[in-house]
Amino acid sequence: MDVKIEKSWKQILQKEFSKPYFGILSDFVKTEYSNFTCYPKGSDVFSAFEHCPFDDVKVVIIGQDPYHGVDQANGLCFSVHDHIAKPPSLINIFKEIEEDLQIKSPETGNLERWAKQGVLLLNATLTVRAHEAGSHQKKGWEQFTDAVIEEVSQKKENVVFLLWGGYAQKKGKKIDVSKHKVLKSGHPSPLSANRGYWFGNKHFSQVNEYLETIGKTPIEW
């Protein structure tokens, strides 16, 4: 896997790329993409970094796996390509934004516009085999994305981390809460949301209120 990653991130993560586990991961991903349909497409694997350079990161949202349906995944967690129907979790995210901020849900489920405003949309696992959820888990991606979170936590200040659901909260355990703001809630998936663990968390207004208090531009959700 030729790591084509935005230059500020390449500097930050260069040491990860040279570790043995990343070489093994790279070989695994190359083999999978050669023999199976995998998502996102190769050029989108590192899109989260491409659209949100390290210096611009103000907010981090942690997902788990890329979508594994046809042409859904675009390299940003919870996001889909413009022409793709919004998955259930994303529909619930937009419902909460609509209720929280009184703004209409957008036509597209493509969250590139968030990334370009400084929202790092990071999946724990960056690739998946088509129609096989979790198929690329425990191959090294989690170690890599743990390193991403640690670098943000150590090298930056006043970043807002949104940890939705138990998996994200576990992954966020190494965040330095003395330097950053951490907001937790249930996951936006229907299973969690319909039990009352998602709706009403008001994370989107809380993010913007916090960013304004530290003199940063709020996110246009």
Structure description:
The protein is of the alpha/beta class and 221 residues long. It contains nine helices and six strands; from the N terminus they run H-H-E-H-E-H-H-E-E-H-E-H-E-H-H. The chain has helices spanning 7-17, 20-35, 47-50, 88-101, 112-115, 141-155, 166-171, 190-193, 203-213, and strands at 38-39, 59-63, 119-123, 128-129, 160-164, 181-185. A four-stranded parallel β-sheet has the order 3-2-5-6. The chain has a two-stranded antiparallel sheet with strand order 1-4. It is globular, with a radius of gyration of 17 Å.
At the first level of CATH, the class is Alpha Beta
CATH topology: Uracil-DNA Glycosylase, subunit E
Q: What overall geometry do the principal axes of the alpha carbons give? A: globular
Low-confidence stretches: none
Question: Could you give the distance between the termini?
Answer: 33 Å
Order of helices and strands: HHEHEHHEEHEHEHH
Helix-residue proportion: 25-40%
Domains (count): 1
Largest sheet: 4 strands, parallel
Secondary structure class reads: alpha/beta
The portion of residues forming beta strands comes to 5-15%
By DSSP, the count of extended strands is 6
The overall average pLDDT, rounded, is 96
Q: How do the strands line up in the largest sheet? A: 3-2-5-6
- What do we call the CATH homologous superfamily? Uracil-DNA glycosylase-like domain
| Second rung of CATH, namely the architecture | 3-Layer(aba) Sandwich
User: Helical segment tally?
Assistant: 9
